[in-house]
Amino acid sequence: MISIENTSIGFNTHLFSANGICFEKGKVHALMGKNGIGKSAFLRTLSGLIHPLEGTIQIDGKEVSQYKGADLAKKISFVNSVQQGVPYLTVDAYLLLARTNYTTLFGKYSDEDYTCVQEAKSKFKISHLSEKFTDELSSGELQLCAIAKAYVQGTDFILLDEPTSHLDYSNKRKVYDLLVEMAANENKGVLISTHDIDLAFKFPFEYCLLDSNTKEMRKITSMNEIEVEFSS
Amino acid sequence: MKIVKSGTVLFLVAIIGIVFLFFFGLISGDIDTNFKDVYNALFHYSNEDINQVIIREIRFPRIVMAIVSGAGLSVAGMLMQTLFQNPLAGPYVLGINAGSSLLVALGILSGVGFFSTEIGLIGSALLGAFVFGLFILFTSTFIRSQISLLLFGVMLGSFISSIIAILEVSSHAESLKAFMLWSMGSLQGVSTHQIPIIVMVILLGCVLSYLIVKPLNVLALGEEECRLMGYNIQTLRVSIIFVTALFAGTITAYCGPIAFVGLAIPNLTRMLFRTQNHFVLTTANIIFGALFLLTCDIVIQQISGFILVPINALTSLIGAPFVIYILIRKVR
Prior knowledge:
With 232 residues, chain A is α/β, with parallel strands linked by helices.
């Protein structure tokens, strides 16, 4: 469980505060809010890329900053909203990189690592891309691969910053379905930020709003509150 | 994986090539010698036989230097290219070699005896490479554009050359000669007794490179991905600069500046092996870098009867067009 107490979030300057918020495993939590309110900053804070300005964030009872780098990478994975393909890096090799922390000194992969990758590829239906170089993929294909890579990393928590921004409608639905299934069947805690509000409310997510008036994060249950936020 | 299997054949061919050229280089030259002379020179050396002296004191150190310099510069180039995520980066382009040259020049031209000794020379070259490596690293944190960083490196190089030129004009004839000889770049500047220490340093650099293949593989995805995998990015960057300085500094100290090897070979190996696996790439750079510079050296020796070509000129003649070819491919 991720629990947040009296925390101020932002890159150098305060964006919003969060108090008494929990994200449990086994569920998909959808983070909504206006542009620039701090959704990305929040996900980056959870993944340890930036520090909270104030307050504490605990993952499974331990402060984020207390984790060793490699241990945190086994606990939580983060997918950026923008992905960059790398020349001469195949999709297979790209996905395998998520297993880095489980490999030997020179990075030799085990059978288990290959199995993980196979599983992720069939789950996300990207097996046909295996031998393609990542810089030759479309941005949608690359986004699917990046989400698959987070899955391969085998963490309890998966954070996704606008994971569906480059996907077509059917892929959006597919990804949301997969996330819900992953959370339920493998007891993972999934956090996404999204602007696909209408679609998100069709899925059994938990919803979380960054209120632009109070500059506070709060959990919400109905779509009305979203409409109030976005009508101003 | 598949890539590694087809790669094995390439590696074998290259290694056979190196072994063949190694012995070919020892046997052939201005003075004809045979295989027996080579065998004796290496294992039953007698300094009364002129053929053996030529092989052991002239050809052997030059050929070994070609192999280790080619390997070292190529791995250094690969490290720079991954660090800056820029296929056109390299110790020469980014002014790291120039940094070595500056400190060596300051040392030699200052006229202080210590800096002209072997330890003084290597010390200044290594320090120069490391300091200017850190400087480029520091600069790269606020010059984000790939092209701007390269231009910065080129500017830094010209700036340093100007300082060196001023130093040269106002220095004594004797120290000037020592520096000019060094700055021309030559594989012949090393004598046999120095070979073990140089080989040891380059081997150390190779071992250190192999030890960071895992973070390098992740670094190819970008610095953020590297941090997300739990690596301390500052430590990693400084380690990469350190290993690069070890290669570039040592080789620059003994051979003078040798251009384009560190730029062209890492690109060539990526094209040949089509992978971002740095274990494969490091191995490929060691082998193909060695093969490339060894071939250049043998060619120079074979045509030396007609025309004398400095090693730096030949690597540039081959390397520059290849780099332009990469540029055109990238733009397209």
